[in-house]
Please model this.
Amino acid sequence: MTQPTSDDPQVVRDRQEGRDAFEIHVDDSGRAAGFTQFVDHTGRDGERARIFPHTFVDEKFSGQGLASALVRRALDESIDEGLTIVAVCPYVRTWIRRHPAYEEFSTAPTSEHLQALD
Model:
């Protein structure tokens, strides 16, 4: 595997702040440059959803497009797994609005989704 860089970052799954997350790495330090947390939830109606409550990219990596690359990869993997996207995080919600092809795979958060975050 090649070493990740800002121009060619690596996205992996791990945990951040007690939640599952997709992390983006730009070097081999083992420290994530940013992450987007998620919670998988199966609703009462049987719908399988991936809820995204929070995204963070370290300030020193600001303006490099890492948040966008991270969210795109997280959403693509979620869609490939057959999950509906639930964007609670303002960044993910805005990203989806700016990339309308993803809107068909997302749904607005419901009270059931929000309760799953507790």
Notes: The first helix runs from residue 66 to 80. The radius of gyration is 14 Å. Strands lie at 10-16, 19-25, 34-42, 48-52, 55-57, 84-87, 106-107.
